[in-house]
Design a protein that fits this description.
With 264 residues, the protein is α/β, with parallel strands linked by helices. It contains eleven helices and eight strands. It has helices at 39-42, 68-81, 94-105, 124-140, 142-153, 156-161, 163-174, 180-192, 219-228, 244-247, 249-263; strands spanning 3-6, 9-16, 21-25, 47-51, 87-92, 110-116, 205-211, 233-237.
C-alpha cells in the first residue's frame, strides 16, 4: 500500500475506486481494515480513502504521543498528498473525535460529516470503562484486552449467533495491533477530548449515527453530540453494538449512502 510522511514517520493509506472522494477514519484500533465490510457498498460511487493510524496496522510508530488535533493535521497532510481540496468525512468512535476537530480547525477541507458512534466529551461512565480497559491491558496483557474488547464492542446476539466471526474478530485484533504504550496514549487522548464548547461552530451538513445497544459509546453520548451540532441529522440503529460497520454492514452502508447522496 502507498505511504506518506507525517512528522518523520510513514503512514500507510489506501485509495480505491473512482468518483468523488470519501474519507474514512477508524477508531481506537486505528486500522483502515475496519471499513472493509462497508467499502464495497460505496466504492461504485466514490473514491474511498482510508489510512492506518500511526503505530497501527502498517503505519510506523510515532515519535511522540499524538493528540486529536495532531490526527486532524495528519488527515490534512493526506489530503494535500492526494491533492484533494475537500471531501465528505466519516469518523467512527475516536475517528469521530478526529473528524469533529477536522471540521472545526480545517473547515474548508470537509464538505459533509458523518459522526459514527462517537462523542463530544467523556463522562463518568466512559471514564470508568476506559480505566478498566487500561487496567486489563497493563495487568493481564494484550490477549486478555482483546477478549474484553470483543465482549464490549460486539452485541451479545452477534457473539451468540455468530461465534466464529466473534472469535475471528478477537484474533484479528491482535494482528497489527498497536504497541501497548501507543494504545494507552490513544486512550488518554480520547479521554481528554472535550468539544462541547465548539460544536455549534460545525457548519457542514452532519449525520450522527449510532446503535441503541452500544455499550462503549452509549446512545446518550451520541444524542448529546447531535444536539450540539446545528441541524445535525440523526440515525439510531436498533442493533449493532459499537462496531456497526462490521456487525450490520449492509444497514450501516445504506444509511451512509443515502446521506451522502442527498448531500451530493
Amino acid at each position: 500500500m502507498p505511504n506518506f510522511a507525517f512528522r518523520g514517520r510513514e503512514v500507510c493509506f489506501s485509495d480505491e475506486g473512482d468518483g468523488p472522494p470519501l474519507l474514512f477514519i477508524a477508531g481506537l484500533s486505528g486500522r483502515q481494515s475496519f471499513w472493509d465490510a462497508v467499502k464495497p457498498r460505496l466504492k461504485p460511487r466514490f473514491r474511498i480513502l482510508s489510512f492506518d493510524h500511526p503505530g497501527c496496522g502498517e503505519s510506523e510508530v510515532p515519535c511522540d504521543d499524538l493528540s486529536i488535533s495532531d490526527f486532524a493535521a495528519l488527515v490534512v497532510a493526506l489530503l494535500d498528498r492526494l491533492e484533494i481540496d475537500n471531501t465528505p468525512v466519516v469518523g467512527h468512535s475516536m475517528g469521530g473525535a478526529i473528524a469533529q476537530t477536522l471540521a472545526l480547525d480545517h473547515a474548508s477541507r470537509v464538505s459533509s460529516l458523518v459522526l459514527s458512534s462517537t462523542w463530544a466529551k467523556s463522562d463518568p461512565y466512559f471514564e470508568r470503562a476506559f480505566a478498566q480497559r487500561c487496567e486489563i491491558l497493563k495487568g493481564l496483557g494484550k490477549e486478555a484486552y482483546a477478549r474484553a474488547q470483543c465482549l464490549a464492542i460486539l452485541p451479545p446476539t452477534f457473539i451468540a449467533e455468530r461465534p466464529e466471526e466473534a472469535a475471528a474478530f478477537e484474533r484479528g485484533f491482535l494482528v497489527g495491533a498497536a504497541p501497548d504504550h501507543i494504545v494507552l496514549a490513544r486512550i488518554a487522548a480520547l479521554l481528554a477530548f472535550d468539544n462541547t464548547a465548539d460544536l455549534g461552530r460545525i457548519a457542514c451538513s452532519t449525520l450522527v449515527i449510532y446503535c441503541r445497544d452500544d455499550a462503549v459509546v452509549p446512545p446518550h453520548m451520541s444524542r448529546d453530540l447531535a444536539a450540539g451540532v446545528p441541524g445535525a441529522s440523526v440515525i439510531e440503529l436498533s442493533s449493532g453494538g459499537h462496531f456497526a460497520p462490521l456487525t450490520v454492514a449492509e444497514v450501516y452502508g445504506d444509511a451512509l449512502q443515502q446521506f451522502l447522496t442527498e448531500q451530493s
